[in-house]
Amino acid sequence: MMHITFYWGKKATILFDSWRTDSWPGYLLSLLALFAAAFFYQYMEDRRVRFKILAGSKPSLPPPPSAVEAPFLLPPSASAFFRPSARLASALLFGVNSAVGYLLMLAVMSYNVGVFVAVVAGLTVGCFFFISGGEADFVASQNSCGCP
Known about the structure:
This is Copper transport protein. By secondary structure, the protein is mainly α.
């Protein structure tokens, strides 16, 4: 039976019918795997952000014209100077990270409290280790969407 409210218990179906937990050891191993996946998600996000910063900082751009001199001209984006291989790598990292994020979301939608806590704890610990610097704020201010 599928739950539509939060519940606590060792019996859970996570993502697939074949990933069912019926015992405490299996349940705890599943929670550990979800914690590791959430931690990995934050690691991959950090790698993607760092790659974007490194790839975007290589070209030296001329200073943009002032708004008075050229009101309708936008300054060239650093991403326009990416090599195609760097853009492909950035897009692949974004795709892997998005896939892991959606799988974590679907796991939380099992409505098991332990699964929810494991995923949130993994994201929190991963954020502490990988994204506690200022790089994420820099990229967020440069790019309003989550795309590479």
